């Protein structure tokens, strides 16, 4: 029997519904792993705002129920006022939990879709980790924050805000730094263990020291630490077009769980 267009749409809808529980769980642990300073709810929308740090994960409207599409115009305007009060540009985060009617409205109003990201997971139980030099996590938040800003070549003025975010993480965290005697910090990662889930919040290597195995080394150390603490599944987020990072994570058995992106109003960059 031939498969029709309606059949394909039905299968796609069923596939999306089947993965919603996983999406909800990973979104929840993601919120705890990267906490915003202000979290408010409007229905099932989570409005996340952080005055000191520009991260979109800390400053966005995150819809959490596909069936919640009441008073969309009113609620968007209300959220806009909150973002203006914080001095932040209005951003909506689209995951599989967002209502299709909300996305249709954003499109109709000329909002721009940008920064597609893949959320990936890997089974830690049977994962064979590379035999590399092991690095123990630091508990010194100041040292980690300094190293992270240097490795990412980020604005040093973000230090207080980044330190506040890292200090606000409630689940156990492993702060990993690889240092070079001459260059100082050359690689960093942050692993947050939330019960049986371990989130890799970033893997950064100084540009001049890439392709030397440092990313493999520090990621292996973080995953080994998480597994020793009884984590069973690792998760992370990576840009959809970051081919080197995607290749690295594929080597560790990471596979796509779902994708998200952001929307901003027309005229905003």
TrEMBL record:
Signal peptide: none
Keyword Heme: no
Domain N-acetyltransferase: 131-269
Pfam families noted in UniProt: Rv0428c_C (PF24553)
Top-level taxon in the UniProt lineage: Bacteria
Any one GO molecular-function label of the UniProt entry: acyltransferase activity, transferring groups other than amino-acyl groups
Keywords on record: Acyltransferase, Transferase
Protein name per its UniProtKB record: GNAT family N-acetyltransferase
């Amino acid at each position: 029997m031939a498969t029709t267009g309606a059949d394909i749409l039905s299968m796609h809808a069923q596939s999306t519904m089947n993965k919603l529980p996983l999406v909800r769980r990973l979104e929840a642990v993601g919120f705890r792993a990267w906490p915003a300073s202000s979290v408010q709810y409007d229905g099932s929308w989570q409005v996340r705002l952080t005055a000191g740090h520009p991260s979109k994960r800390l400053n966005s409207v995150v819809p959490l129920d596909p069936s919640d599409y009441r008073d969309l115009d009113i609620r968007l305007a209300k959220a806009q006022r909150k973002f203006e009060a914080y001095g932040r540009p209005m951003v909506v985060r689209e995951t599989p939990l967002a209502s299709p009617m909300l996305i249709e409205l954003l499109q109709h109003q000329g909002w721009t879709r940008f920064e597609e990201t893949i959320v990936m997971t890997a089974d830690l139980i049977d994962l064979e980790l590379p035999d590399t030099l092991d690095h123990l996590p630091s508990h010194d938040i100041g040292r980690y924050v300094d190293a992270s800003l240097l490795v990412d070549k980020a604005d040093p003025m973000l230090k207080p805000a980044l330190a506040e975010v890292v200090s606000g993480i409630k689940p156990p965290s492993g702060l990993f730094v690889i240092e070079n005697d001459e260059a100082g910090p050359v690689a960093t990662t942050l692993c947050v263990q939330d019960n049986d889930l371990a989130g890799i919040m970033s893997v950064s290597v100084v540009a001049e020291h890439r392709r030397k195995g440092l990313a493999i080394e520090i990621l292996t150390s973080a995953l080994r630490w998480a597994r020793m603490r009884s984590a069973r599944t690792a998760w992370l987020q990576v840009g959809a077009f970051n081919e080197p990072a995607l290749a690295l994570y594929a080597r560790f058995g990471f596979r796509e769980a779902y994708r998200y992106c952001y929307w901003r109003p027309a005229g905003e960059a």
